[in-house]
Amino acid sequence: MMVKVLIPTPLQKYTNDEATVEVEAVTVAELIDTLETKYPGIKNRICDESGKVRRFLNIYVKEEDIRFLDNTQTQLSDGDEVSIVPAVAGG
């Protein structure tokens, strides 16, 4: 499945300054691994040492937070849009 991934500015240095990339993946976990293959070093910024998505990042598939779906096992469909969004705090 070909999906479009929206890359946040802090991670664009890994994607040759591309804000949007397309990869083939069936699940979010596979998407992250594919990103790592194409853009070495990006997975360490997305996932912690145990392979879980870092808590200061949110990943959305079609505007749905994967934490409320099947997390990294969330299935992807051809043409889906996946957003990687850094958490924002403030007050």
TrEMBL record:
Superkingdom of the source species: Bacteria
InterPro entries found in the cross-reference section: Beta-grasp_dom_sf (IPR012675), MoaD_arc-typ (IPR010038), Mopterin_synth/thiamin_S_b (IPR016155), Sulfur_Carrier/Prot_Modifier (IPR052045), ThiS/MoaD-like (IPR003749)
Pfam families in UniProt: ThiS
Protein name, UniProt field: MoaD/ThiS family protein
Natural source organism: Roseofilum acuticapitatum BLCC-M154
NCBIfam families given in the database record: moaD_arch
